[in-house]
Amino acid sequence: MLTTIQKIIPLSLKTKLKPYYRFFFPNKLHCVFIPTYLCNYRCSYCQVCSNFQYSTVYPKSVEKTPEQWLEAFDKLPPTTVFVLGGEPLLYKGLYKVINEMPKKHTVLGLVSNCSMPKDLYKKIKPMHMNISFHREFAKEDEFIKKVIELKKYHHIAVNIVAVPENIPFITKLQKVMKENSIDLHIDPYFGKDYKYTEAQLENLPFSNERKYSKKYQLHNSLKMKSCSAGRNFYCLMPNGDALTCTSGCDYIYSDLRKNDAKDFNTDIFKLGNVFDGTFKLNRNNINCNLSCFSHCDMDFCVIKEVK
Which residues of 10-38 are buried (b: 16+ CB within 10 A; e: fewer)? Predict the structure, then answer.
């Protein structure tokens, strides 16, 4: 149903409705599912697979089988699932997990760098796919040709990160995507000590639902916030660890973030493991004054200053 709606509703209307979709669909619980942190790219701006290799925290050896994941999802409450990585299609059997997902769940979409064989994408039942264009590794003509081909099987949206070297190219990509009726999402770049100029902020066609100004505010705020991640949102790691958010994951594990949270109780980000019976959602919001740089549940969870 969601895939059908995504096909027929224009991007401008989807943007306005996105924060309210839980009022229209019964699976109001949202999960980011990361079956693998393996990736065949090493993009210079990637905080997950390049600047910090999460595949060393959650290596292939701890990954669960498709059968194990299907059994786990069968026991979880009704959830809207979004699939991330690494490159998630490097996880063998992902098509089985998606195609045989218990009906009480809704697979909202999947992110891929579009580098896998086309037949692998075709194994997955028709769904929404966010295809990320990484120009450091993907050739422009080949990428566009493949995206247009996959559009015959799936609802496709293309993402590109507005890193400095991509900015001159974005207008051209926007034109090509429009000509082929493919939504283009421009993701803001949050590099250390990097800020867009006023002219760039005015002229870059950031996707409205990305809310750059709100993301920037959250990214730089160390004020106490009341966050519902862990209550109506959670992340599933390759071994079944359940965490409140991907920012929390970085504060626990990443050398890039751990020092920022050395005086903070990062246990608040841990919900347990879905395979050992300790997993349960929070009943209340958590109070967190750390920088929210992943913005996992920005549109759906309540984030506010605590007086």
Answer: eeeebbeeeeebeeeeebbbbbbbbbbbb
